[in-house]
Write a structure and sequence with these properties.
This protein is mainly β and 499 residues long. 9% of the residues lie in helices and 38% in strands. The termini are far apart.
Length: 499
């Protein structure tokens, strides 16, 4: 097997080596040459004007995004003063960053921005956290702070795309409530604004995401998926709502294995996989209009006997999946000394992405690519990742990309390399669609000899496209988020609440 790269989204079970627009509902889209949809030009211009005034129009009228060609969606993003990263970027602000809110009732606060010359409510949520660092789910863990009260680790979440380019002017823009803080964002010499409001009953009821725990189904604006209800790693469907193959299944499964000798290279190799031995069971979800946080119980089963369980969290956004696992493993330092040449492989097994472009953080050309074509070229053979350089990229050529990265704490010095297969004749058990088209992911091949905790953070971005080379996207976008300043509005220009 070639070691190479990955793109993807929902994985990460290094569960420790034994263990992630009807907008104007009239006429439908035409289909441009090449098979992409294309909204009629006059309707599209009208949509641009409406989108500037109403940032949630695509969430309110879900079929609109399906009518846009890749170029039209790109033009709409540009029209809003955004790029392909800032359009998908969720803003996450901890309570301790806004001290004026601490100790206050969560229900008293909301978020607004200026769009179309008016101050309007935008989708937001204030999530509480437990003492293990996960979003608080009643009955799972102890809350960090007080229920219903804004504490240090509670988190305000909204979409950067919903901010406005215009500042609030109290003299001309009346609101129901008081402005507590101005949130000023700066990126590439441009500024955008959002406002924390106290005492307003106005709410935007649009949802960018919607995960149903009973069926383990997510229906988002940009994409959707369904997993097996007894294993979050086993997908029954994963599709995009954009491009020329809308609704087409993109992913076969998350493919994760743990392979190792014990005590000696001469010993039989232990082989565990996500199909039979590693189960990720969703046990609850904390819902919001911007993010649904799915709490997961990961269980490693050997000889039909559960060896141990850990908790993890999967954050579902409109164009992003985030996996976080904080794992305490009693005896792990002893166990790891028995493992010889371990490999923990976590990969995405794609469904027929021939013609897609791929690259990784270490490659012959940082902003270049190679095509998925059923054989591994010299370019692909030289792609790789390491602890510091961990991004992976696949561009489908069907109107969507995947960009992934993993953050490895300094306290967990593992060895990581790229896992990559581009071979239609390479089959694994339990595949729905035989062959690697491609199969991409992480190979954790070296474990420290003394550790008891793992803290993992994996993010999968699903932009419509990068808008630049993958290395530039990592350097200038995912690695350079908008800078935030939290301002006290002046009384001459705004209504403000007393601190």
């Amino acid at each position: 097997m070639k070691r190479k790269k990955f793109d993807g989204f929902v994985l990460t079970r290094i569960a420790v080596f034994i263990t992630f627009f009807a907008c104007f509902i009239s006429i439908g889209p035409t289909w441009a040459e090449g098979g992409f949809p294309e909204m009629e030009a006059t309707r599209f211009q009208t949509l641009l004007g409406e989108y500037e005034k109403n940032p949630t129009i695509l969430a309110e009228q879900r079929d609109l995004i399906k009518e846009l060609s890749p170029q039209q969606l790109s033009d709409a993003i540009d029209h809003l003063g955004l790029n392909h990263y800032t359009y998908l970027h969720p803003v996450e602000i901890r309570g301790k960053e806004i001290p004026a809110l601490l100790g206050k009732d969560i229900g008293q606060y909301s978020v607004m921005s200026v769009r179309g010359g008016k101050m309007i409510p935008i989708p937001f949520q204030l999530d509480e956290y437990d003492d293990s660092g996960f979003v608080y789910l009643e009955g799972e863990g102890d809350i960090d702070g007080t229920i219903g009260i804004i504490d240090d680790e509670d988190e305000l979440v909204f979409m950067y795309r919903d901010t406005g380019r215009q500042r609030y002017d109290a003299a001309t823009m009346l609101i129901n409530g008081k402005v507590v803080r101005e949130l000023e964002f700066t990126k590439n010499n441009g500024k955008r604004y959002a406002y924390v409001i106290e005492g307003s009953s106005d709410r935007n009821r649009s949802n960018y995401v919607d995960y149903d725990l009973k069926t383990s189904t997510a229906t988002n604006v940009f994409y959707g998926f369904q997993t097996q209800t007894d294993n979050f790693l086993m997908f029954k469907d994963f599709y995009a709502n954009v491009g020329d193959k809308q609704g087409h299944r993109v992913l076969d499964s998350v493919y994760a294995t743990i392979e190792t000798h014990v005590l000696s290279t001469w010993s039989p190799k232990i082989h565990l996989n996500t199909f039979e031995h590693i189960k990720a069971i969703p046990i609850g979800v904390v819902k919001g209009p911007v993010r649904d946080a799915v709490i997961i119980a990961l269980t490693v089963v050997v000889a039909k006997v559960p060896v141990f369980k850990i908790r993890a969290q999967m954050d579902i956004y409109d164009q992003m999946l985030g996996f976080n696992a904080r794992i305490n493993i009693p005896g792990a330092d002893i166990l790891s000394r028995f493992l010889v040449e371990p490999h923990i492989i976590i990969a995405l097994d794609f469904n027929e992405q021939s013609g897609a472009r791929v690259n990784a953080a270490i490659s012959p050309e940082a902003d270049g690519w190679e095509f998925v074509d059923g054989k591994v070229s010299d370019f692909e053979s030289n792609m790789d990742i390491d602890r510091e350089r961990t991004w992976l990229w696949l561009s489908s050529n069907h109107g969507w990309d995947v960009f992934a990265r993993i953050n490895i704490p300094e306290t967990f010095p593992v060895g990581v390399q790229l896992y990559y297969q581009d071979d239609p004749d390479d089959h694994i058990a339990y595949e729905n669609f035989p062959g690697a088209f491609p199969r991409m992911g992480f190979d954790v091949y070296k474990l420290p000899k003394d550790f008891s905790q793992i803290d993992l953070d994996v993010q999968f971005f699903f932009p419509d496209m990068l808008g630049m080379g993958p290395s530039s996207f990592h350097k200038n976008e995912t690695g350079a988020v908008p800078e935030l300043a939290i301002n006290i509005p002046t009384k001459t220009t705004t209504n403000i609440a007393a601190d």
